[in-house]
Every structure is written in structure tokens, then in C-alpha cells.
């Protein structure tokens, strides 16, 4: 008798859960479009100024991935997001990744070019690359060569300022077409506020090279010194006249009890040469970040479009995560074949303004091919 009652109870509960699920699905499908800002036209010839590349050293590329990272689950995810396999890299060399990025961009309706980012490593006490403490290394020469072969790829250099020949490397990068310098301080072991870096910053100003600097939480690698992602560390290069683009609005992290975006906003009020990009802000692990970027008064007129490729080619980003898009919008974006076009349409439908999509060209000016 008790068993029969229990079975009826369980069956009733399942029916209730199914009904709730169906109702929830119906509400989700019926949601209207609710963009953060009024939707504006998408401009032509967009530049993605935040696009990563990597390699394993195949084809004498000079790239490096630490053995510990190769054993990490992230490694396989990154390979899939780049659209390559270890066998293909061994057969064709690391340069095949740049070739495929170029082909994908060529089929994009909205994005004309992408800044491909090198990534320097940790430097030892003698000013040389320290592979024992570096997880990923993508040399400037590898990226410069890839960009020379493809007109839709722009060279984003990366120089650890503690290298003994850092100034010479900067000059080489500029001579080979670099449009910016990229840092991820938490994994490169760089303190952007270190006064020893003043000569490096002055050289950047002389060469008119902007600094694209990661700010906020860093979880793409196994280890990171999170304090180096504090936007307040950028006060020194800003005061010296360096144009700085603080990546990711310093999201998802607190410093000394204060939120990263609030610290960044304070700097925006003080320095007109400070910008921030919207790369990765539509990822599922950054809820509310795009809305903050678009509505925070200090960020107005300072936002730059970027994707953080290849992360846009992973499960981190999807239109299905958003409650601000209608079902028709989600479906249309999801069915868009080109990964860059999907990202543009997602951000556009959420309310990213025309000026944000167009700002990369304004920043790089004559540097753009």
C-alpha cells in the first residue's frame, strides 16, 4: 500500500516538474527583445582588436606551450576553438592557425581585419625568457610573419618590459608593422606600475604604440598573480602619455575591497588616453558585464570592439544564454556560420553602438593596412 502511494507521489512530482519546465520554456521562447541600449546600424569594415593565436613549436615557429598546460583540460578546448588538431600542426606547422583565421575573416560580412596578438613570457633575473615559469609563449617574429602573409591580419606585438633588450624589440616590432603591444600582467609577471618601466613607456610613446593590457580576473591559465591585473597599476603609463586599452573593463575581480570596473572608471575620469575593450563581456562567466560597459557614464566614448578569439568559438559564448534577445534573434545568430559575424550580431542586438564597432580603425589610423 505504502509503495503504491509512493509511486503515485513520484509520478505526480514528475508531472509537476515537467509542467513547470514546459511553462518555463514557453516564457523563455516568448521573451521580447530587450537590448541594453537602442540598436544602431552595424558599420562596415570592423576591426577585431583582440584576437589570440598560439602554437606548439611546430614548423620552427618558436611558439611554446608548457607541458603542464598540455596536460590540462584547457589545452584540448583551445585546440578545438582554433579549429586544428595536433596532427595538423605537426604536418603543416603552427602557421596553419593564422592561415585559418585569415580564411575565416575573409568570409565575414562585418569584420574586415583582426589584430593577432603575440604573447611574451615570464622573464628571469637576467632579462631572458624563463620557460620554467611560462605557460604560453607566442613570439613576435611568428605573428609578424603571419601578418605579412595575410593582409587581413594586423600585428599585435608583445614585449615583456623586463627583457634586457626590450627597447630594441619594441623598435623591431614597430618597423615590422606592429599596431599595439599586448600584455597579460598576471601571467607575464609584470607590474605595470613599476617605475623601472618608465624608459619602456617613453619608447612606446615615441613609437606611437598603444598598450592593450589585460585587467581584471585571469582564469584562462593555470596560475596568475591577480594583483597585477589591477587597473590602478596603469596610472604610471597613462601619466607618461601611453594610450592604454584596458581589456575586459577589469571585470570579475576586486582589488583592496573595490570592484575592478569602479577603479577603472575613476581612471577614465582622469586620463583621456585610456580606453577599454568589450572582448569576452558576453561570455557566460561574465554576467552583467556588457551592460555595465554600455551604461557606465565614464566608459562612454571609450569602448573598443574586440572578441578575445578563440574564446568566442567555445561554449563560453552563445546567444542562448541571453534573456535580452528574442527567440528569433537567438536563432538567427546561432545559425550564422561565421564566428566573427555571430559575435558582431550578438553584441549588436544587445545594444553595442556603432561608434564602439568603429573605434579600432580610429585608434590605429594609418597603421592599418
Short description:
With 369 residues, the protein is α/β, with parallel strands linked by helices. 41% of the residues lie in helices and 13% in strands.
Layout of secondary structure:
Elements: H1 2-30, E1 46-52, E2 64-65, H2 67-70, H3 73-82, H4 86-92, H5 95-106, E3 111-117, E4 136-137, H6 140-149, E5 153-157, H7 166-175, E6 178-183, H8 185-188, H9 198-207, E7 211-214, H10 235-239, E8 244-247, E9 254-255, E10 258-259, H11 260-270, E11 274-277, H12 289-295, E12 303-304, H13 327-334, H14 339-350, H15 354-364
Parallel strand pairs: 1-3, 3-5, 5-6, 6-7, 7-8, 8-11, 11-12
Antiparallel strand pairs: 2-4, 9-10
Helix pairs in contact: 7-9, 13-14
How would you characterize this protein structure?
The chain is an alpha/beta fold and about 375 residues long. It has a single domain (about 45-315, about 350-365), classed as Metal-dependent hydrolases (TIM Barrel). The protein has helices spanning about 1-30, 65-70, 75-80, 85-90, 95-105, 140-150, 165-175, 185-190, 200-205, 235-240, 260-270, 290-295, 325-335, 340-350, 355-365; strands at about 45-50, 65, 110-115, 135, 155, 180-185, 210-215, 245, 255, 260, 275, 305. An eight-stranded parallel β-sheet has the order 1-3-5-6-7-8-11-12. It has a two-stranded antiparallel sheet with strand order 2-4.
Can you tag this structure with a few keywords?
single chain; 369 residues; alpha/beta; TIM Barrel; 8-stranded parallel sheet; two-stranded antiparallel ribbon; 12 strands; 13% strand
Count the DSSP helices. 15
Topology as a string of helices (H) and strands (E)? HEEHHHHEEHEHEHHEHEEEHEHEHHH
The neighbouring-strand order within the major sheet is 1-3-5-6-7-8-11-12
Number of individual domains: 1
Helix content: 40-55%
- Give the overall shape, derived from the CA principal axes: globular
> In percent, how much strand structure appears in the residues?
5-15%
The CATH architecture designation is: Alpha-Beta Barrel
CATH class: Alpha Beta
Helix-and-strand structural type: alpha/beta
Superfamily at the CATH H level?
Metal-dependent hydrolases
**For the residues shown, what is the average pLDDT?**
92
State the end-to-end distance: 80 Å
CATH topology: TIM Barrel
Question: Can you tell me the residue ranges where pLDDT is under 50 for at least 5 consecutive residues?
Answer: none
Note the main sheet.
8 strands, parallel
Q: How many whole angstroms does the radius of gyration measure? A: 22 Å
How many strands? 12
Amino acid at each position: 500500500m505504502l509503495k503504491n502511494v509512493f509511486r503515485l507521489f513520484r509520478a505526480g512530482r514528475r508531472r509537476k516538474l515537467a509542467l513547470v519546465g514546459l511553462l518555463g520554456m514557453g516564457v523563455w521562447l516568448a521573451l521580447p527583445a530587450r537590448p541594453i541600449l537602442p540598436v544602431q546600424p552595424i558599420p562596415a569594415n570592423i576591426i577585431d582588436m583582440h584576437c589570440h593565436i598560439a602554437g606548439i613549436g611546430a614548423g620552427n615557429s618558436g611558439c611554446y606551450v608548457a607541458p603542464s598546460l598540455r596536460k590540462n583540460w584547457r589545452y584540448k578546448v583551445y585546440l578545438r576553438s582554433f579549429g586544428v588538431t595536433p596532427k595538423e600542426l605537426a604536418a603543416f606547422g603552427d602557421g596553419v592557425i593564422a592561415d585559418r583565421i585569415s580564411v575565416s575573416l575573409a568570409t565575414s560580412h562585418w569584420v574586415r581585419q583582426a589584430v593577432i596578438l603575440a604573447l611574451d613570457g615570464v622573464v628571469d633575473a637576467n632579462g631572458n625568457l624563463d620557460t620554467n615559469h611560462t605557460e604560453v609563449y607566442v613570439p613576435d617574429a611568428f605573428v609578424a610573419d603571419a601578418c605579412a602573409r595575410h593582409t587581413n591580419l594586423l600585428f599585435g606585438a608583445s614585449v615583456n618590459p623586463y627583457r634586457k633588450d626590450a627597447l630594441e624589440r619594441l623598435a623591431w616590432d614597430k618597423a615590422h608593422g606592429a599596431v599595439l603591444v599586448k600584455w597579460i600582467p598576471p601571467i607575464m609577471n609584470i607590474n605595470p606600475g613599476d617605475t623601472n618601466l618608465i624608459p619602456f613607456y617613453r619608447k612606446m610613446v615615441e613609437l606611437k604604440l598603444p598598450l592593450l593590457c589585460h585587467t581584471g580576473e585571469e582564469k584562462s591559465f593555470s596560475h596568475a598573480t591577480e594583483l597585477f591585473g589591477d587597473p590602478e597599476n596603469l596610472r604610471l603609463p597613462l601619466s607618461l602619455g601611453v594610450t592604454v586599452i584596458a581589456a575586459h573593463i577589469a571585470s570579475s575581480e576586486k582589488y583592496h575591497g573595490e570592484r575592478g570596473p569602479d577603479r577603472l572608471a575613476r581612471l577614465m575620469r582622469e586620463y583621456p588616453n585610456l580606453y577599454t575593450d568589450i572582448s569576452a563581456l558576453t561570455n557566460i562567466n561574465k554576467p552583467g558585464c556588457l551592460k555595465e560597459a554600455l551604461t557606465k557614464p565614464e566608459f562612454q566614448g571609450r569602448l573598443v570592439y574586440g572578441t578575445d578569439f578563440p574564446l568566442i568559438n567555445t561554449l563560453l559564448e552563445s546567444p542562448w544564454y541571453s534573456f535580452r534577445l528574442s527567440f528569433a534573434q537567438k536563432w538567427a545568430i546561432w545559425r550564422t556560420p561565421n564566428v566573427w559575424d555571430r559575435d558582431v550580431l550578438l553584441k549588436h542586438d544587445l545594444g553595442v553602438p556603432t561608434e564602439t564597432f568603429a573605434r579600432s580603425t580610429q585608434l590605429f589610423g594609418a597603421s592599418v593596412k
